[in-house]
Amino acid sequence: MSTETFEFQVEARQLLQLMIHSVYSNKDVFLRELVSNASDALDKLRLAALRDDTLDADVSDPHIEIEIDAAARTLTVRDNGIGMSYDEVGRLIGTIANSGTAKFAQELREAQEEAGAEGLIGQFGVGFYSGFMVADEMTLLTRRAGESQGTRWSSRGEGTYTLARVDDAPQGTTVTLHLKPADADDQLHDYTADRTIRGIVKRYSDFITWPIRLVPKAVDGATADTTDGDGEADTAAEPETLNSMKALWARSRDEVSDDEYHELYKHISHDWREPLETVRLQAEGTFEYQALLFLPSHAPHDLYNQNYQRGVQLYVKRVFIMDDCEALLPSYLRFVKGVVDAADLSLNVSREILQQDRHIKMMQRRLTKKVVSTVKDMMTAAPDRYATFWREFGAVLKEGLLTDSDNRDTLLAVSSFASTHSADEPTTLKSYAERMKDGQDAVYYLTGESRQSIENSPHMEAFRAKGIEVLLLTDPVDEVWVDAVGEFDGKPLRSVAKGEVDLGGEDGEKADGEREKQGEEYAGLLGWMKEQLGEDVKEVRLSSRLTVSPACIVSDAHDLTPALENMYRAMGQEVPRAPRILELNPDHLLVKGLNQAYTEREDRAGLAETAELLHGLAVLAEGGRPKEPGRFVKLVADQLERAL
Ligand code: ADP
Predict the structure, then answer these.
(1) 194 alpha carbon to ligand 1 midpoint, in Å?
(2) Protein residue with its CA nearest to atom 2 in ligand 1
(3) pLDDT in the model for residue 50
(4) Measured from the CB, is residue 97 less than 6 Å from ligand 1?
């Protein structure tokens, strides 16, 4: 059969370089990765056979085999699972699955420059390729269940790999590692020793639900274990099953170590890092199920992708049914990984049926409550871990404030926000409420693109001057949930950029009388400006929120914010541009001067330009853009010229 040579995709090549030069300190994990792939392949075969009873496949004894040949320095991991077709091998093994993104490629380049590669490998996990940490050559022989021809893939991990079609491949996949030369000082990592392999399997793969067998090498009836010098071959050697196969979720908490839980997490999430938290739930009664869920410690980079594969694995009585079962958790918990094992579902259950099923809905409700309450417990029991969690997943969790009214109160309680109270410590709403000033009747917030842009907004001026705390909300979802939620603990959530502000009668507060007087003084100017600006503004009024800036734009209490308008437009929805309110600072010299000129002059043509400029400045200050930027720039330039 002819052998063809192919080049690895660029990212794959870079990654292989990292693997070959072994930047990852814990090389043992290569075996976990190969066993994990083999276990997935057995799951897939079982399902395929269940769905298609004409499938010509052997499903009589699904298992994984590990074989050591110390003399040849090879280690073989074999499964009789689903296997791969010729095309699949090229597609799945020649490229980096899940990771062929621009972000990955970029991080890879940076990592190579900065030698930060270990973290990168941990972050992306690299499955099959991790074999090159310990091997200088890998071959893979595979035949897809139901097909007659097999495929041999082989590579030294450098630039290329070869593919050949073969006639006599067994069903499933055999991966052979040609181990790098032995390191005499490193007995612990001697992968040709039975005890090393035993230890690694026990440590990383004990929970795998298929048997993992260590098979004695069949050379003239002798075994790797028994060539102990007496020349006598031990023909009775049996394969030894290395793993207990006990489903971790079915065992009681005190029987299972944290490490064991964490290895299961790594197997199902393809994440090489430790999870942040493990959540267990055992439901008894008419609809019995067990759940073992994990909160990861890092948000995956594709969490906001439309096609992000969300959901946990579904098992029915220890039998794997599907990955990414999205019916089990709401979308705002899409980062949760884990296993749910239900006792009373049909093995043939489909995604469509699950979406409708009453029991599944109840299960979703209960699991959701459990996850949210786990986060709540973390706040007090492990504040550092909670802080990590919130940094990574807070923005996603807040989607639940909109969509999950059942858990809204708990979600509000576990949410934290950047605030003017502290430059780096986020605050909860409860702590905010405790700090509220006497007479303050609302929780104030401002939404915007970044902390800095919000802090520099003119809307913040009076709040800063009075020392009133404002929440600084910068996630896109913040624009939406604040309106939907409306209040916390009886106190309305109020944007500092919306409606009238009345900061109460504190010291330094302008006397009502003075305000009234100013109102009369400016009445003419305000009316005239409204005429000048026409449709662009709904109203021109005096402001009580400005101390430094001459003018700002505000919305009516129930209007959409400009950011929200933009979001709707980005989603393809028609939204009319709502005219906004222009507020002037009556204590600002520019505004005072304008008023004086307005009352004294007959010819107001020059003043009209100033009015337009003031409006443009206010629009700019809130991060918008003047209606006609070119004209605005010309007006500014003209005015500057006159001032020279
Ligand atoms: P990952 O397992 O993270 O997807 P890998 O590089 O380990 O990445 O594997 C890539 C893909 O190759 C797997 O998703 C699977 O489709 C296929 N594959 C790997 N090993 C096997 C195997 N033993 N049997 C069948 N398919 C496999």
Answers:
(1) 25
(2) 127
(3) 86
(4) yes
What is the token pair recorded at 518?
Answer: 């100013």
- For residue 99 and ligand 1, the question of a CB distance below 6 A is answered with no
Residue 594 Cβ inside 6 Å of ligand 1? The answer reads: no
Query: Which token pair is 448?
Result: 């915007």
Q: Which long-range contacts (CB under 8 A, 24 or more apart) does 508-514 make?
A: 508/465, 508/466, 510/544
The pLDDT, as a whole number, for residue 12 is: 79
- The DSSP output letter for 570 is H
Residue 544: CB partners within 8 Å, gap ≥ 6? 462, 500, 501, 502, 503, 510, 515
- At residue 23, the pLDDT reads 63
Binding site membership of 81 for ligand 1 (Cβ less than 6 Å): yes
Q: Is 270 in the pocket of ligand 1 (CB under 6 A)?
A: yes
User: Which residues on adjacent β-strands are paired with residue 416?
Assistant: 428
- The pLDDT value recorded for residue 117 is 64
Say how far apart CA 130 and CA 134 lie, in whole Å.
8
Mean pLDDT by 10 residues, the chain (644 residues): 85 79 79 94 92 91 96 97 94 66 66 64 75 94 97 93 95 97 79 94 92 81 47 64 92 92 92 94 91 95 84 88 91 96 86 89 96 97 97 96 95 97 95 94 93 91 93 92 92 90 59 81 94 91 91 85 76 80 94 92 84 91 85 91 86
- Give the pair of three-digit tokens for residue 509: 């507060």
CA pair distance 461, 122, nearest whole angstrom: 46
For residue 531, count other CB atoms closer than 10 A to its CB. 10
173 Cβ closer than 6 Å to some ligand 1 atom: yes
- CA angle 336/341/342 to nearest 5° reads 120
- Residue 490, both tokens: 């009886």
CA 38 to ligand 1 center in whole angstroms: 8
Sign of the torsion angle spanned by Cα atoms 434, 436, 441, 447: negative
Handedness of CA 205, 348, 328, 571 (dihedral sign): positive
Per-residue pLDDT at 498:
86
355 C-alpha to ligand 1 centroid (Å): 28
Whose Cα sits closest to atom 23 in ligand 1?
38
Kindly report the number of other CB atoms within 10 A of residue 186's CB atom: 9
Cα dist from 495 to 415, 454, 472, whole Å = 18, 12, 10
Q: Which amino acid is at 467?
A: G
What are the structural domains of the chain?
Answer: 3-245 (3.30.565.10), 249-389 (3.30.230.80), 416-495 (3.40.50.11260), 509-643 (1.20.120.790)
Q: Is 277 in the pocket of ligand 1 (CB under 6 A)?
A: no
DSSP tag of 437? P
Q: Give the pLDDT score at 479.
A: 87
Q: Is the CB of 82 under 6 A from ligand 1?
A: yes
User: Could you tell me if the CB of 127 is within 6 A of ligand 1?
Assistant: yes
**CA nearest ligand 1 atom 12, residue:** 92
